[in-house]
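Bit of a strange request maybe. I'm writing a small parser for structure token strings and I need a real example to test against, not something I typed by hand. Could someone generate the tokens for this chain?
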Amino acid sequence: MIFPFTAIVGQEQMKLGLVLNVIDPTVGGLLVMGEKGTGKSTAVRALAELLPDIEVSAGCLFHCDPESSTLCTSCTAKLAGQATLGREKKKMRVVELPLGITEDRLIGTLDIEHALKHGEKRFDPGILADANRNFLYVDEVNLLDDHIIDLLLDSAAMGNNVVEREGVSFSHPARFILVGTMNPEEGDLRPQLLDRFGLCVRVDSIADLDQRVEIFRRRSAFDLDPDDFLRAWAPEQQTLSERIIAARRSLRQVEWTDEILRKVVEVTLAAQVDGHRPDIVIMRAARARAALEGHRDITKEDIRETAHLALSHRMRRLPFEEPGAGQRKLESVLANIL
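Reply from user aminoacidic:
Good idea to test on real output. This should exercise your parser:
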């Protein structure tokens, strides 16, 4: 049994970052950095219970979106012989990627012998197939093999996984929401992968006395009688689940003013972050937060809450810079502009 997401004490930014990615998968995923025992893995796994249903192509191993023009090889072949694809509902999932994964297990394999003998493709799906339109979770992401990181970056950039062997190829969509957790004490993350995460949050051990007592109480109650604990938290879970579903439906109706857009660009310029991705991520995350809060328009508060998540890992760090200097600079930038 999984500890309920809404029963997690504190760590509000981490929980917000995860929920925003459910509401709008184009936010770009979340990296959670922190020491052991701070609830990183618990929160990600608990999120699975709140994930909504999505519409997929009936019988498709890759959960293709029937409305999308990007389909797997199998669905493309089906569509060639009929007017429309069958549809069914499936619940979104959190798919875990183990550290020692091989290339074949990640991207899948083609049965060349079968193709040569029978003239048809036989593809054994990998983790990327399971992860399409789902969450892909990597614990200790900073310890992932460089070759596997390269494959993930390629798939994330293209939104597609192509496997080729001996002149035979098979492709399927690979649009996953990447969530990684790591302990910075165990090593850094490659800059290319760090920038690929739309949002990032640093979690620390909770120092508040009352909160620490409450953490112990809830964990003890869950361990003693999980069923009773889950029943007690079912209303909170249901409420958040309904808010997420409503936010997903209203997301495209959320609007923003030119003033808000200019404020976002002012923030990213003042924070001296590279590229245009930070502007896009902040706007997408702010729109998702506005939808979650029931706003019709993006507010400065939406920008303030999401800018922290979108910029903390993109701030330039000087040699021998004091811990927390970047965060203080970001706070100053937001206070001056917003």
